[in-house]
UniProtKB/TrEMBL annotation:
InterPro entries attached to this UniProt entry: KsgA/Erm, rRNA_Ade_diMease-like_C, rRNA_Ade_Mease_Trfase_CS, rRNA_Ade_methylase_Trfase_N, rRNA_adenine_dimethylase, SAM-dependent_MTases_sf
Recorded family membership: Belongs to the class I-like SAM-binding methyltransferase superfamily. rRNA adenine N(6)-methyltransferase family. RsmA subfamily.
GO molecular function: 16S rRNA (adenine(1518)-N(6)/adenine(1519)-N(6))-dimethyltransferase activity; 23S rRNA (adenine(2085)-N(6))-dimethyltransferase activity; RNA binding
GO cellular component term, pick one: cytosol
Enzyme class (EC, first level): transferase
Domain Ribosomal RNA adenine methylase transferase N-terminal: 39-215
Keyword terms: Cytoplasm, Methyltransferase, RNA-binding, rRNA processing, S-adenosyl-L-methionine, Transferase
Catalytic activity: adenosine(1518)/adenosine(1519) in 16S rRNA + 4 S-adenosyl-L-methionine = N(6)-dimethyladenosine(1518)/N(6)-dimethyladenosine(1519) in 16S rRNA + 4 S-adenosyl-L-homocysteine + 4 H(+); adenosine(2085) in 23S rRNA + 2 S-adenosyl-L-methionine = N(6)-dimethyladenosine(2085) in 23S rRNA + 2 S-adenosyl-L-homocysteine + 2 H(+)
Domain of life from the UniProt record: Bacteria
Organism: Candidatus Levilactobacillus faecigallinarum
Record: residues binding S-adenosyl-L-methionine: 32, 34, 59, 80, 105, 130
The enzyme's E.C. designation: 2.1.1.182
Protein name: Ribosomal RNA small subunit methyltransferase A
């Protein structure tokens, strides 16, 4: 790389690129351009990207994070949905021969096929991205359900969503999203990012979360989708007890109520508990017990 050219993520270079191409961040695509080199480098460090790693990126924008990944990684494949950014990326990432840009919506991509076609096997696979905030959860769930074995996922998102994903039982942020995400992976907040780090500034603060493959659970649900639907139903009315939410799921007929009580006694969970007090394993035990009871 030409050392006389400032890095893409520096405020001066970011502004120059936006002005040159007359780019305006598109709210419809959740675009905000991160222009803080320290934060960009810290994201790459949080993923521990090395020259042996293959990396998927989502939403490269003008290439600020892509450049920092490319400086460390073996190869980067980035999905960019906005066609207007393709000529920008062609220019900004020209010095890097280990970057491939794919003009496609990540939600419509066949990720296993792309990975098979673009990466040499036998190298760690990571996902590092500044996610569009309006579709953070669908993207993450899509990636986690794609059967791609990522060694690590490090992504930026709205801090409020990061708090929900990483919340533990008993925390007011803990809900169905926490349970479903933590079923798929270990979740932790790596660090927070102030809104001042972006051009233009968003109305919210951000956070970087790190997802790593979770260890095997001592109990597994009889069906993943049944578990997710059940958890969502249990959190339908947060202020109500587990008992009331279970009646909302299964019904209030005397015979059904009796069977619900049988299940709660079997797994030794109080009907008075609120759903946010239950652990992931509690939910799995419950869904399996209701299945055994014939209610699911």
């Amino acid at each position: 790389m030409n050392n006389s050219v400032p890095e893409i993520g520096s405020p001066a270079r970011t502004k120059a690129i936006l002005n040159r191409y007359r780019l305006v961040a598109k709210k419809s695509l959740g675009q905000n351009f991160l222009s803080d080199l320290n934060i960009l480098r810290n994201i790459v460090s949080a993923a521990d990207v090395s020259e042996n790693d293959n990396v998927i990126e989502i939403g490269p924008g003008i290439g600020a994070l892509t450049e920092q990944i490319a400086l460390k990684a073996r190869k980067v494949v980035a999905f960019e949905i906005d066609e207007n950014l393709l000529p920008v990326l062609d220019e900004t990432l020209l010095p890097y021969d280990n970057v491939k840009i794919i003009n496609q919506d990540i939600l419509k991509a066949n990720l296993p096929d792309v990975i098979r076609d673009e990466f040499e096997p036998g190298h760690p696979l990571k996902l590092v991205a500044n996610l569009p905030y309006y579709i953070t959860t669908p993207i993450l769930m899509g990636v986690l359900q794609s059967n791609v074995a990522f060694d690590q996922i490090v992504v930026m998102m709205q801090k409020e969503v990061a708090d929900r994903l990483s919340a533990e039982p008993g925390n007011k942020e803990y809900g169905s999203l926490s349970v479903v995400m933590q079923y798929r992976a270990n979740v932790e907040i790596a660090f927070e990012v102030p809104r001042t780090a972006f051009i233009p500034q968003p109305n919210v603060d951000s956070a970087i979360i790190r997802l790593t493959p979770r260890e095997s659970l001592p109990v597994t649900p009889y069906d993943d989708k049944a578990l997710f639907g059940f958890v969502k139903g249990c959190f339908a009315h947060r202020r109500k007890s587990l008992w009331n939410n279970l009646q909302g799921i299964f019904g209030k007929q005397p015979e059904v109520r009796e069977r619900i009580e049988t299940v709660l006694n079997k797994v030794d969970i109080s009907r008075q508990l609120r759903p946010e007090r239950l652990t992931l394993l509690n939910f799995i035990e419950l869904v399996n017990a209701f299945h055994d009871e014939g209610l699911m």
